[in-house]
Amino acid sequence: MDGFFERTYDLVRQIPAGRVASYGQVARMLGEPRKARFVGFAMHASPGMAAGVPCHRVVFKDGSVCSGFAFGGPDAQRGLLEAEGVSFLDDGRVDMGACAWET
DNA sequence: CATTTGACTCTAT
DNA sequence: AATAGAGCCAAAT
Q: Which of A7, A61, A97, A98 has the greatest number of beta carbons closer than 10 A?
């Protein structure tokens, strides 16, 4: 963990399957809630799940994902999350009320 | 070395 | 309630 990115990856890696966490929440866990944007940026720069970083489990605070910038598209993210047991709302958002990552 | 930008979030209108 | 704007910090150029 030389940089903030490594720390972010490590925390995201600890997200259990079937659970999702918001960028801001991850940043807050790292002790720096102001770096919410960097958490997302780290995901973009991260090698992805190939390195054990389930970026698809990291979503907006509302439970929505950034359409167009996801690892393979919002549809793929939704498919992966559903495969892990994450509930989705009719709006296409993750059910944060039931699948929000609890520490 | 200074400027720009970004998978975000909050506050104000 | 919904939309718009500002703030934040660090890396990339």
A: A7
